[in-house]
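Researcher: Next sequence.
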Amino acid sequence: MAELHLKDLSPQRDPSLRFDLVVPSGGFIGLFGASGAGKTTLLHLIAGLEERGTGQVLIGGEDQTEWPAHRRGVTLLFQDHNLFEHMTVFANIALGITTGTPTPAEHVAVTRAIDQVGLTGLEDRLPHQLSGGQQGRVGLARCLMRRRGVLLLDEPFAALDPPLRYDMAHLLAALRQEHRMTVVVVSHDLAPLMAHADGAAPLQDGRLGAIMTWAQIAQDPRLASYGAGLTSQSAHFSAESPAMP
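Model: Next structure:
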């Protein structure tokens, strides 16, 4: 579990984008915005996969701006899950900790991760034999194996039917508690996050806004396209309450 702090962060290829954000240790937030707004670019900057122009990335109070991706205290679940089609569920997940044959202890750890994401019995299947939701769980389990304090997810609900989106959000919340992670989810569909996340931050006009409560999002006319799906549930949240603990 670690605080995520971005200070005036900007990609080298597009200095018009600038990001400032603080997610407290153990926080769980959503990020939303129009297609092409820079959401995936932001996740890649945090993970060290995008060339930085300016700014800093601090994780757990440590400046990791210059650290290579494999050393940073974050792990990223890509939208396409980034699975190897010729490898089984078990082998794909094991890549989170080893590129060789797993040791007995690593084998136990992978088996436990498979159970945690609800894939027990599917260990020997290949990705094309899985549903979109199951593929997402394989990618999520591999992220867990890396044991990083910050988990980033890029549109984890995109390939899922509405009921499965809520199942995935519930799973994320449970894993966040068990693994003591800070979680940031990019999603066009915010409704599945309402029961679990602390709030969400809009990315508009190249800037990342403050983290808002769900009621604030639902009531903001500028965010009508996002708030429409939250309106029926917004009564459970107070717009006067801070989004973060």
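Model: Confidence is low (pLDDT under 50) at residues 233-245. The beta strands are 4-11, 19-23, 28-32, 52-59, 62-63, 74-77, 150-154, 182-186, 199-204, 207-208.
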